[in-house]
Write a structure and sequence with these properties.
Helices cover 33% and strands 3% of the residues. The protein has 277 residues and is an all-alpha fold. It is elongated, with a radius of gyration of 29 Å. It comes from Roseicella aerolata.
Length: 277
């Protein structure tokens, strides 16, 4: 006489069969019909709201995510094709040519108020951008993505590939040494190239501030080793105005110490805080 099957066993079998069917059916539906093919799928799996800039995408996960691979550069460039030529030709942003991934620094699902930009110098270091940019031979996925974009959109960006030549956390010294900091930050260089291109010798990648830096003695007379006078000091303005204001009628441009204090350029010896420019 056959043993009766317990209802609990039947329930578990049904649940198992249902789960297996869902595990097969849901990916098939998503691949064929997109995130809207399964009701409530996007809302249930989203790690957080999109930024205000991308809020118009709603629950269209496939607008940025490639099935089975996640976010890739080509979907991003489909929308940002007009921005790409500027990104890869401006010195400050030319590093995009050698990155190969947008999601490394442009992180989404952090909330509507957050801009999707979280600069991660580790991504730059891993990309080998420093050497590639210096030699004019950018390497990897960005160029490939541009080529794919050309195929998708036509000849409107056909010449684009020809132009391709986490903030707050410092990298280990070995990784930081691979970066070509001056290649991106030349326009921000307050040293006016007087201190060379080896930014890592003083600066960390987490912040511009130099930990432990101490200015030379206020009695130092070697200011011009690091500081360059503004253009006005090489014109008649220096003789007609600056000398008279400070009372140093015979001062030379390179003798900064005769007029300026070391805490601020606007703190004038014998005069106090004065800003006339």
């Amino acid at each position: 006489m056959a043993r009766a099957v317990k209802p609990r066993t039947l329930l578990y079998a049904a649940l198992g069969a249902g789960g297996l069917a869902a595990a097969v059916l849901v990916p098939v539906l998503l691949l064929r019909g997109g995130s809207g093919a399964v009701p409530g799928w996007a809302a249930a799996t989203s790690p957080g709201p999109l930024s205000a800039a991308h809020a118009f995408l709603g629950e269209q996960c496939e607008a940025c995510h490639v099935p089975l691979r996640g976010p890739e550069p080509t979907p991003c460039l489909t929308c940002h094709a007009a921005d790409a030529p500027q990104l890869v030709t401006r010195p400050a942003t030319a590093f995009h040519a050698g990155i190969g991934t947008c999601a490394g620094c442009h992180v989404e699902h952090l909330g509507r108020e957050r801009r999707p930009i979280l600069m991660d110098h580790a991504v730059l270091a891993r990309s080998g951008h420093a050497r590639a940019a210096a030699e004019g031979t950018p390497k990897n996925g960005f160029r490939h993505a541009l080529d794919q974009l050309r195929l998708l959109l036509g000849d409107g960006v056909a010449d684009l590939s020809q132009d391709v030549g986490r903030q707050g956390r410092s990298l280990p010294a070995a990784q930081a040494a691979r970066l070509d900091c001056a290649g991106c930050h030349t326009y921000q260089d307050p040293h006016r190239r007087l201190l060379g291109r080896d930014c890592q010798a003083c600066h960390a990648t987490g912040a511009w501030s130099v930990p432990g830096y101490r200015h030379p003695s206020p009695r130092s007379e070697d200011c011009v080793q690091c500081h360059q006078a503004p253009p006005s000091h090489y014109m008649m303005h220096f003789e007609m105005m600056d000398r008279g204001i400070t009372g140093q009628m015979h001062a030379r441009v390179e003798q900064c110490f005769l007029c300026h204090q070391t805490d601020s350029w606007n703190n004038i010896r014998g005069l106090g805080w004065y800003k006339h420019h």
